[in-house]
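INFO  loader      accepted 1 record
INFO  loader      residues=161
INFO  predictor   begin
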Amino acid sequence: MYQKLRAWAKRRHPRKSGYWITNKYWQTIGGENWVFATKAEGKDSMRLLKHSETSITRHVKVKGESSPHDGNLIYWSIRMGKHLEISTREAILLKGQKGKCLHCRLFFRDGDSWEIDHKIPRSKGGKDEYKNLQLLHKHCHDMKTAEDGSVGSSNVNYPNY
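INFO  predictor   done
INFO  writer      dumping tokens
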């Protein structure tokens, strides 16, 4: 990497000496010599990270012969957090919940119908934010709403006809 950076610096400043280039781009930071960094006045230097400072990201293999176009909506929504056939909001919630309904704790399956629910109902001061949303089976949503008492005519005044 050093050779590539050195070649870049020489190409960028063809009329400057190697000593000048070294002083401009390489510094000693925190006891480490030969750190490729900027010299920002009044600010902390920005430096190039070492390869060893890059975290390793493990990836989960795709199951068998799966494809995003095979119609397995649940699998791909959980895996990627997005899918062409459902809204981004639903896909993000599905991924965050690891494919489970938070009311009955069962996995969503192909063909299940679901609804987005507010954990704290909006009628009781809940906000329309991801941390207040959950994806529930349609029947679980009906049960949860009945338990909440957020829907009903108890607090609504209808005119008498």
